[in-house]
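Chapter summary example.
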Amino acid sequence: MSNQKRPLGLPFSEILRMAWVSVGAHKLRSALTMLGIAIGVFSVIGAMTVITALQASIEKQLNVLGSTSFQVGKYPAIHSHGPINPYANRPDITIGQAQRAKELLADCGAIISLQVRAWGKQVFFEDKKTNPNNLLVGSDDAFITGRSFNVETGRNITREDVEFGRAVCVIGADTRDRVIPVGDPLGAVIRLDGQGYRVVGVLERKGELFGQSQDNIVLIPISRFLQVYGRENRSVGINVQARTQAEMGGTMDRAYGAMRVVRGLQPEDSNDFELFSNETLVNAFDKIAKVVGAGAFVISLIALMAAGVGIMNIMLVSVTERTKEIGIRKSLGAQRRAILRQFLIEAMLIAQCGGLIGIALGVGGGNIAAKFMDAEPVFPLMWTIIGFGFCTAIGIGFGFYPAWKAARLDPIEALRFE
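The structure predicted for these 418 residues follows.
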């Protein structure tokens, strides 16, 4: 009696060894099935590794507006530049509107700066020049405070510079290193779009943000910028720095009201401008991350379902090839649940091995991609657990029918099989 029940009492380690031997007996077939599982897991783990790394980088690095600052502009923080852009029809924020809003906010104690920008500028000095990747900013004396810059040498732009439209500039460390690598840059006259600007200050190095340097910048008085480049088709941004974090919410409410007044909006009209802060930028990225994550998950699920069909196929083939083995085991007393458990473990083993390969490739590939975006490596633990769990579920779900079929075989008929 005890001999008949022995097969049922096989330890898990022995069943696992038998399953591994069975999988290894058909290496190519098993490897191709594992590859299908690995591709599905790789797609979601790779995407979520990149997103997780970027989210961590944003939370760590995002100080572009300062902890108590927010920006007012025509466009939201993150928006499309494609042919369908609902914000493009909004009227520009003119310099007059921006100055009026600044006046309305004067009594709230906030530091307010106005700014306009132009990207892709090339700076010249004597026989040297930069690449056409400099950011030209027209602003005032409050710009560097609101954007967390510090002056390394020289001075900042002054209110007098703005009032008289002086041809002076403050440059970033990268711009200085490229055109004035030696000697004192103060007093040097650089040229930009055919205009000469005397350097009065150099900003401290700030480093990169999302792979882009923050130090290839040229800051000039906003009055000079508008004089040279004109006011048409140009929207002015407003940077507001509240006195304290506690006052930031109230200051933002004041800014909303001031902008609606200067834009001439009626109570029933929607805002035709945007306010955004560091928190807004993080939340906007989180929304994008959720959409990308959902897309990656759907793609992964489709790939895993296809791989699950492959698991079912090879397990059905395995049952057919091992029909006589099953008959011998059942004739020796192995019960149906023992046979069912063995084949389910084999299906799970294939799915989990493929899942582990996909996880390893996804984490490695995702971190390599994140490195090119200057994000630190991460390990998306939650998504790894979810991915591995789905692999296990796929193995059980698609391996159950072949295992059930093996368990239901008649031992007499199985022994006759050749």
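To summarize the output: Residues 9-60+284-416 form one domain.
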